Amino acid sequence: MTERIEGHGGELALAALRAYGVREMFTLSGGHVFPLYDAAHKTGFPIYDVRHEQSAVFAAEAVAKLQRRPGLAVLTAGPGVTNGISGLTSAFFNASPVLVLGGRAPAFRWGSGSLQEMDHLPLVAPVTKHAETVFSTDDIPRAVTAALTAALTPHRGPVFLDFPLETVFSVADAELAAPPGIAPVEPDPEEVARAARLVAAAERPVIIAGSDVYAGDATAALREAAEALQVPVFTNGMGRGSLPPEHPLAFAKARRAALSGADVVVVVGTPLDFRLNFGDFGDAEVVHIVDAPSQRAGHVQPAAAPAGDLRLILSALADHPGDRADHAGWIADLRAAEDAASARHAEEMAAETDPIRPARVYGELRRVLARDAITIGDGGDFVSYAGRYLEPAQPGTWLDPGPYGCLGTGMGYAMGARISYPDRQICVLMGDGAAGFSLMDVESLVRQKLPVVIVVGNNGIWGLEKHPMRAMYGYDVAADLQPELRYDQVVSALGGAGEVVAKAADLGPALHRAFDAGVPYLVNVITDASDAYPRSSNLA
Question: GO CC terms on record (predicted)?
Fold first, then answer.
């Protein structure tokens, strides 16, 4: 079904965006994209602006990840686009359906040296699913539709369009088609059956579920498969919370015991990358379940690798008609390891030390975070502890930079999360190193009345670099920050509020004040710089 619409390029683009459920625009003001602002302003389409373009793209990515729909960032030409490339790249690694619309110098005088004239496509093409310059105004709805369809088709990912100045400012009559339905990718039934037989027959199987389980709306199917086959489940990324912590098959702290003892490891919706030892689990057979054939690992030969709609594959595993091994003993062994680790962690999270150990910060956070709180990790060392000590209770409540590991996501993710969930707790966990990337965008949150809580682990160093470098060379360089820097005063100066905490006993009251404040509030926790995160047990 199609309809004819008329308007300038911004109006044509916005009409196509609305058809896909896009409900807000993240941007930093630029003249090349004024028509997009005009279209939004005249129709009450919300515009949220930031102080650095990376935050606009990260905010759009947070919306895309949390709401499983397209997120939109609008960037002006040249440096506007290049400033957003780290956000685009993170979205690419995270399979987030983000659309970046860029301005572009006028085509009619291309090569003459117009302001911010550059060809963006060679830069963005390697980190997008689709990148295109739209030269005709009446072609804008078609281009937006094609880009968003590509973004939402598994394996999902970001897309990019830019509009020469005369294209987006001109008026045209155009055809707007309804968004095409995206059919589920049907997996090979023989490959699914092979995977089901391996899991059902295994004596010590383990499931590791990642972000695509949430993105593909497959959390219910994951639970169905785990319960039907009685397989313990570990998670990473946005897979966290797929099973609530109290579920008898949910595990988080016994991963080393599980992976060293498993005979079949089922990895669902996450790549076999550095977070999973590149898919090397010793003698265990690997079943890699992915949402598209393109995501099959090329460096590992799995015993089975079903590719397609994760709901269909996981439901088929649950319905496996053959014999199933008894896993009760294996689950009991892992539960014993989990309980022992939980006891150790409880002791660590209650530590009365001066200076404060990061574990204590997370012990106090566990007391105040609601089950539906959105927790955002932006950092290295400090956020690694979050993976160890925090256990999301619901799916879709954990945001971290993902495998690309880009710092600076914090304020953009916070903006997207607050807009997505106006009534939930939004908590950003930030290292003091990461604070240097995006803290100025607290001003954007204050100005647009978007309260969030920011907890900074302030140890005055680049923790993931300083300790390893000293171990390797006996010295370190370029690994120190100002000790006890008052990041809370920065937030206060930008219109928010905050405080510094140097004693463990003061953590709880400070966090309660933060969540009650109703403005962006930074709790600046002075942590122990000598406390190095144990990388071998990273659960993030």
Answer: acetolactate synthase complex
